[in-house]
Automatic annotation (TrEMBL):
The gene is ihfA. Heterodimer of an alpha and a beta chain. One of its GO terms (cellular component) is cytosol. The keyword DNA-binding applies. This protein is one of the two subunits of integration host factor, a specific DNA-binding protein that functions in genetic recombination as well as in transcriptional and translational control. InterPro entries: Hist_DNA-bd, Histone-like_DNA-bd_CS, IHF-like_DNA-bd_dom_sf, IHF_alpha. Coiled coil: none annotated. Keywords: DNA recombination, DNA-binding, Transcription, Transcription regulation, Translation regulation. Belongs to the bacterial histone-like protein family. It comes from the Bacteria. This is Integration host factor subunit alpha.
Amino acid sequence: MGGKTITRADLAEAVYRRLGLSRTESADMVEMVLQEICDAIVEGDTVKLSSFGSFVVRDKGLRVGRNPKTGHEVPIPPRRVTVFKPSNIMKQRINEGLADAPAPVETEAD
């Protein structure tokens, strides 16, 4: 499954190339957008990016976990988690990419 990891620097570079802003302005713009997304998620708001997907905050209740080594039960406290739900357009684009990829070659083991 391994692929390239897109970093903040990669995003800033893409903004620099496409918009012609300075590298500093591009990096600042990427930081501002990411900060706005983070602030909204921390507040518990849903962040919806059209044609991309949504970041949703969900509350998980108290549950009991088990240490796999000892079998000892441990309470896991309630917490909030962020879930990403891709848009239908994004799902379609991902699946189109699979359709264009060559089929894996099966080999027999000796």
